[in-house]
Amino acid sequence: LKFSAINPTSSYINYNARLNDDNMFLLGLSYRPTGTNQDVTPINGGLSQYGDILTSGDINNWTFSGAVEIYKNLFVGLNLNIITGNYDNTYNYNEEDVNNLFQDQIDPNDAGTTNFQLLHIDKHLNWDISGWDAKIGLLYQVNPMLRIGTTVQFPKIYSIKENYSDNFYSDFVNQPGFALDPYSDEVEYDIVTPYEFGFGLAANVKGLIFSAEGTLIDYSQSKFDDLNGFEDPAKTQSDLNRDIKDGLVAAVNYNLGLEYTIPDVGLRLRGGFFVQPSPYKDDPPEYDKKYITGGIGFLAEETIGIDLGYAYGWWDDFGDNYGTGLSRTLQKITSNNFILSAIYRF
Q1: What is the pLDDT of residues 277-287, one digit of tens each?
Q2: Model confidence pLDDT, tens digit, residues 38-69
Q3: How far apart are CA 316 and CA 296, in angstroms?
Q4: Element (H, E) at 14
Q5: What are phi and psi of 246, to 5 degrees?
Q6: In angstroms, rounded to a whole number, what is the distance separating the alpha carbons of residues 95 and 45?
Q7: In which region does residue 174 sit, left (phi positive, over 0), alpha (psi from -120 to 50) or beta (all else)?
Q8: Is 191:59 a contact under the CB 8 Å cutoff?
Q9: What pTM, to 2 d.p., does this model score?
């Protein structure tokens, strides 16, 4: 993600100076008038804000599954999933006085703060991820034409080993500027997701199968656990979990699908549509993830199956450089996923 724009009403410098952020003072971007306990700065809107965010990573799922018919036409199944992976985020942010709005001395007591030019921030975040989860399901074949089922996804537990570092410096015209000592921190914690409750049905009418499924997820029940090494005195584990409860809501994902099997060939044609509503409170429908899907499948001798699928998704998103709605990047995202799977029945 890359962004660049003039922000006429806000700046990272002014926002953090009002929070008495020591970094702004040490960079020569704010000062504290005699007899007060509040940092001030003449720098506000009108700066060019630009930067980029580079993210990468992977999640590996190793799933062990089993199912058995416990009563005539009633089946129970269990998945045990082992999770490994990593995530990496590099954030580069700049505020530059491209129109020379702030040429006067920022700090009246420091001539080295004359003619502000640039604030530069580098942040790097790396996660090492491990975890596990389990799902149980029931399937009942009501008659040859109708099946119904229900699932319970138990909370997923992700154990995170996090490494964080940042680097700040400021530039002034014809001045050496200021640089902070690089900062780094390591912290370990668990992320626990909520229960997920699903219900679905499939109806077969002359070879045309209609399926529907709904899944209830109360995202406000997510939480941080076993937080070790976190040094922010303003945010305890309880504070973080309170933020989750205040900002997230329950949502129902729903899936619709059609499948037709060509007789005597064993070729199955599939199409579908599903929606994953945004878990954030007060988000409009534009932020819901929506997908159209299609695929083909082949089952030989009722034993070996191969399936190829495609899913096209679209939704809106945004990110804040600081605060809420003060320096925001708006995104329109599309997603293309190809899925290949094979199955052997015995």
Answers
A1: 999 999 999 99
A2: 999 999 999 999 999 999 999 999 999 999 99
A3: 29
A4: helix 12-17
A5: -80, -30
A6: 10
A7: left
A8: no
A9: 0.86
